[in-house]
Amino acid sequence: xxxxxxxxxxxxxxxxxxxxxxxxxxxxxxxxxxxxxxxxxxxxxxxxxxxxxxxxxxxxxxxxxxxxxxxxxxxxxxxxxxxxxxxxxxxxxxxxxxxxxxxxxxxxxx
Length: 110
Known about the structure:
It is built from four helices and no strands. The protein is mainly alpha-helical. The protein has one domain. The two termini are 20 Å apart.
């Protein structure tokens, strides 16, 4: 419960930080740095042997995820801002954010 709550808080805080940063330095560096941080944190969380280490790696995962999330949504906005299909694409991305976290525990139980 603690790791999920902290993950969601850090996901929100990270978006506030990485949004303006991606406007300033570009989407690609933010996306790649976020993906790298997420992979490293995932491996660290999988291999962690203590609860504090696990929580720390989960926080780093949230930082990486927030960077990737912001860069992806900003890229979609950049590409589809003035196109009619932009509403559909943005809706698909938003619905994924709602359904994937709900399906994750189900898939993990299989």
